[in-house]
Amino acid sequence: MRHLRVPSDQTQVWLHRCRQEGWLSKASVLQLDEGMRGIPLQDHAPEEEDGVWQGHVMVHREPKQQGPSHWTDQLPPALRALPFNIWPSAYEIQGDVLMVKLEANVTEHQHAIAQAMLDQLPNVRIVCADNGVSGDFRVRELTPLVSRDGNLSTRTRIKEHGAMMWVDPSEAYFSARLSTQRQESLERLQSFRQRLGRGLVVADPYAGVGPSLPLLLSEPDLLSGYLAGDLNPKAVDLLRLNVEIWSAKHGGELNPALQVCDDARAWQHDPMRSGIADALLVNLPHDSLAHLPDLLPILNQSGERLLRGWAIVERASLPQTKEDLIAIAEGAGATAQSVEVEEIKGFSTTRCFIAFNLILAWE
Ligand SMILES: C[S@@+](CC[C@H](N)C(=O)[O-])C[C@H]1O[C@@H](n2cnc3c(N)ncnc32)[C@H](O)[C@@H]1O
Question: pLDDT tens digits, residue range 323-344?
């Protein structure tokens, strides 16, 4: 196919001109040598000698076909003829695992859908049907549909705030949605560190695979130690794998440096895990408030401590939440020096997803 050879900074000008004149072919623009581009031309475009090309020469190259722009373009022709609105409009990708919720009316085509997605998205290794989350561990029920290399494992690596992290959506909870909250945890802990004038021991007893930790561990001198755990043994396996990588980058000594598989409410009975932390993260949104009285003993109960957590509450009871938090603090013998409750937008109309931040003080 004939391509007009133009300097790359003139590509847009010539694309526009050829499109206007009806000379542009549907193939893609080629990258040629030395900062030159090749504009693909239709057969009826004028010959090279024509003055319209202002002296630019033509080269003959294989046309580079534009890839399909949507995964449905990869479906077999018989399925492409079905109405577009039956196909799933959204999917989620974690690392190289794609998860798609399928309505009952397309499950008979689930393998064709999965294959089309795999063909369209080169970085995806496995496509799974996502049958929703279940149980206390909030783990997704996934059905692998197609794998690029035959490997049906859903263990994969993602990158968040510059840190690599092992996740496995079929074994442990992880959501990228809270990544800005994790950034805010870092900022709040940094200012609390300044307030105390020393490195902090942070406890994260619902840590999952540990996404709150890499930002904290990579901040010089922020942490003097950490306690992390989860009740789901498979989450703790991934947590251990992740923490090993992140703490190697931390450099300094961390004491304590603990990863446990246990019910967070039982930590209060272990002297190695109670009365120790300067800051406590509580991320069990459906039950955070109910668990809190059993968790506050994890904090070192002398001086000021930071409590940060997330909860789902009925919108109607939102005004009461601050009062409830103050009462829980007082029940543990502390004074709530400051209480902030902030709604995280876009959750539901009847229920609110909130972040709460308290500075607690013990005599
Ligand atoms: C909402 S997830 C949060 C995980 C992690 N912090 C994150 O942001 O990805 C809640 C975690 O708590 C764990 N979990 C549930 N009940 C628990 C309990 N009683 N004690 C400790 N962990 C628990 C679940 O397995 C899950 O990993």
Answer: 999 999 999 999 999 999 999 9
